[in-house]
TrEMBL record:
Disordered: annotated span: 1-20
Upper lineage: Bacteria, Bacillati, Actinomycetota, Actinomycetes, Micromonosporales
Composition bias, Low complexity: 1-12
Key words of the record: Glycosidase, Hydrolase
GO molecular function: Glc3Man9GlcNAc2 oligosaccharide glucosidase activity
Protein name as catalogued: Mannosylglycerate hydrolase MGH1-like glycoside hydrolase domain-containing protein
Amino acid sequence: MTAPGPAAPAVTGDGGGPAEADQLRRLAVATLDGNWEHDHTVPSRTLYPHQWSWDSAFIAIGLAHIRPERAWQELRTLFAAQWADGRMPHIVFNPRLRVEAYFPGPEFWGSDRADDAPAAATSGIVQPPVHALAAWLVHRRAPSAASRAALAELYPALVAQQRYLAERRDVAGGGLACVVHPWESGLDNSPAWDEPMAAVPADAAVMRAYTRHDTVHADAAHRPTDLDYARYLAMVESYREHRYRDDDLARWHPFLVECPLFNAARGAAEHALADIATVIGVDPAPHRDRARRITEALVGRLFDPVTGTFQPRDVRADRLVPARTALGLTPLILPDLPPRQAAAVVTEACSARFGLAPRMDRPLPSHDRTASDFEPLRYWRGPSWMNLNWLLWRGLRSHGRPDLAAGLRRSMIDLVAGAGCHEYFHPDTGAGLGSAAFGWTAALLLDALASGDAGRGGAAEA
């Protein structure tokens, strides 16, 4: 089990007042300080001791409220490990740690076999590109000549990240990027991946050759099964054997899925890049055009008018995955999502499946509460996560639902007030699960505490 982190204060409601809100801020700052590792923040000291891609983006958003210079350092350190082809790997390994500190580690990934890999040891897959949005929000929180210079420094890397996804990962040619592994989606163990993963050849016996690190620090009943893990490794091995090249993925790679969250993040990134371009004196029009085309592709390829939600598309089978998960709600972060689809997403979020009606005063579960495979304790198959709540909160604000956004914000704050900065939470009881001192939970708590709800939102809002 995980080691305990800083204790949560006894606070209820919207921070409970100035004194209680200050207690929560101190808890969040202590968590982030405890996870700081010389030039970056680890998600947790136990389960995740290296630097993770989208974790660092969320962490930078929180750091902007307390230490802006550290927020920029977080992003600079991450992008120092960007590949020559533009991909931002999902893990950057800390060479100071022993090899057995995490599995699968750098020796399993073997990124040095790839032509485009950096000198640093990294994984070979990516995560949702929330980094441009993070950079823009860091600047908006603490604008200065230094932050404008930081935006100008990061801009080429952020553009290269987007170009990689558009040019190398649009396997179906419909304008959406494919994920080649469930880990790339960020929702590693979501039921959304069960059907596409069933076609991945693997045997649970494969796991006998390896020692899982996650089940040493967390209850195995809360983590992916050994069979799922064997399939995860099989997908890495397939990609690694091709030296992480994206040529002709449809011919040889076993898992190719267009994910709503991943592509919504791409669209949000283009909106943020348009704002960044304006600040640094670059033409924003190409970014706005790309954002529009991504939104159109999302609506055209992933929105199911029958269910009224966005669903992943299994590119190999050329069909939408039927599982109704929180992934389907995340396109609400797109400020140009058409009103019809935005209203449908809000209706889905308020339904019994996600249980947020009437005022969204309960945390968002990661999977349909009414589904037979809903598991409130197992990783991404039901528990509530601060980053999913945060994304939906932003989306509700930008689409004119401050009433629902306010309730969701209160529920986010209440989760940490009751259980501390846990990795994830039981969606009904609020009990803390996973790592007890988790970076993005602390960081996004700071953002929720600092941000109001009325009349604000959109890609550019802090």
